[in-house]
User: Fold Sec-independent protein translocase protein TatA from Diaphorobacter ruginosibacter.
Amino acid sequence: MGSFSIWHWLIVLLIVVMVFGTKKLKNIGSDLGGAVKGFKDGMKDGQAEADANGTSNGNAAAGQVTNAAAADKSTTIDVEAKHKG
Assistant:
């Protein structure tokens, strides 16, 4: 009961083809392939951009912390100053 034979998978495939049709399955397959290719290209571009900037994974995280600390200092509002008037 744990594993399926080749006949079980062929019957499942036949039912899927009958329900969705070959054209829709082809479109789904090409859309999925395009999405995977786009994801891989995006990962390559991101890695190439990080290499061009001279940052590695450790340096990028440290830079983000530094930038966040600088942003916090520049947007600090003194609430008591408004009431002193």
